[in-house]
Every structure is written in structure tokens, then in C-alpha cells.
Amino acid sequence: MPTLGLNHYTTLVERWTLPMKFPLCVLVMLCLMTSARAALPGDGADGKRLHDAHCLQCHDTGVYTRKGPRVRSLDELKHQLQDCSHMAKAPFSPAQMQNVVRYLNDHFYHFP
Ligand code: HEC
């Protein structure tokens, strides 16, 4: 049988590539998940700079991680920030606001 050699070869290849497909799948899923998280717009480094300059007079970062946080979603975080930046008399532009949201979410809240 002349085809025996070839068949043998393809089974070998299948045996080798099949287990390889699973980790590859996981890897692709991980990439998708991390890129979805990074989808929040804004510049976190600039957000931290703004935050550290304007937001630490009344509370430290402990309020973001305290038990039973007031803020429980991205929307609530944006609202709270509006109230607080008003109190802080920090007239942030919408882009700067987004940067602070990004910083707080990346470092403390981790909302999807
Ligand atoms: C004038 C004082 C003051 C300043 C300045 C201030 N905050 Fe606040 N912030 C508060 C108070 C008071 C609370 C807590 C309200 C409560 O206990 O329910 C709070 C709570 C928060 C929370 C909610 C914490 C939680 O429980 O999840 C966030 C987020 C927040 N501040 C962000 C900021 C940011 C960002 C800035 C800078 C733009 C800022 N704050 C500046 C007074 C201030």
C-alpha cells in the first residue's frame, strides 16, 4: 500500500496539532478580554497626575477601595467625579475627566 506512509504522516500531524489548538484558543480569548478592558478611552497617566494634583485634599485613595463603596458602576463613577471635581474647584475638560475616570478604573474600581 503506497499511501500508508502519507496517512501515517497526517495522523501524526493531527495528533500533534490538536492539543495545540486548545491553548491557542485560550490565548486568543485572553487577548480579546484584555483589549476589551483597554477599550476605556483616556490617558491613565495624565489622569493620575490630575488626580494627585486636585483630589487628595478631602480624601485619599482609601475611599475608592473601602468596604461598601458608594460607586458601583462606571456611570456612578462618572457622576461622583463630576460632583467631586466641582467641589475640588477643578474645571476639568471632558477629555481630562475621561483621563481621571480611566485612572480610577484601571487602578481601583476595575468596572468592565
Ligand atoms: C471638597 C472635598 C472633596 C474633593 C476636593 C474631592 N472629593 Fe471625592 N469625595 C468627597 C467626599 C466627602 C466623598 C465621600 C462621600 C461619601 O462618603 O459618601 C467623596 C467620594 C469620592 C468617590 C467615591 C468613593 C467610593 O465610595 O466609591 C470618588 C470616586 C471620588 N470621591 C473621587 C474624587 C476625585 C476624582 C476628586 C478630584 C477631582 C475628588 N474626589 C475630590 C469629597 C471630595
Give a quick precis of the structure.
This protein is mainly alpha-helical and about 110 residues long.
Overview of this structure, please?
- The termini are far apart.
- The protein is mostly helical.
- The chain has helices spanning 4-37, 44-54, 62-65, 74-87, 94-109.
- Helices cover 71% and strands 0% of the residues.
- It is elongated, with a radius of gyration of 24 Å.
- Residues 51, 54-55, 57-59, 63-64, 66, 69-71, 77, 80-81, 84-85, 87-88, 90, 100, 104 line the site of heme C.
Low-confidence stretches: none
CATH topology descriptor of the largest domain: Cytochrome Bc1 Complex, Chain D, domain 2
Number of domains: 2
Look at the structure and give the mean pLDDT: 83
The number of strands is 0
The termini sit apart by: 59 Å
Strand residue content: under 5%
Which CATH first-tier class of the largest domain would you pick? Mainly Alpha
Structural class by secondary-structure content: mainly alpha
Give the overall shape, derived from the CA principal axes: elongated
CATH superfamily of the largest domain: Cytochrome c-like domain
Question: Helix count?
Answer: 5
Main beta sheet: strand number and arrangement?
A: none
Radius of gyration from the alpha-carbon trace, in angstroms? 24 Å
Q: How helical, in percent, are the residues?
A: over 70%
Second-tier CATH architecture of the largest domain = Orthogonal Bundle
The ligands bound in this entry are: heme C
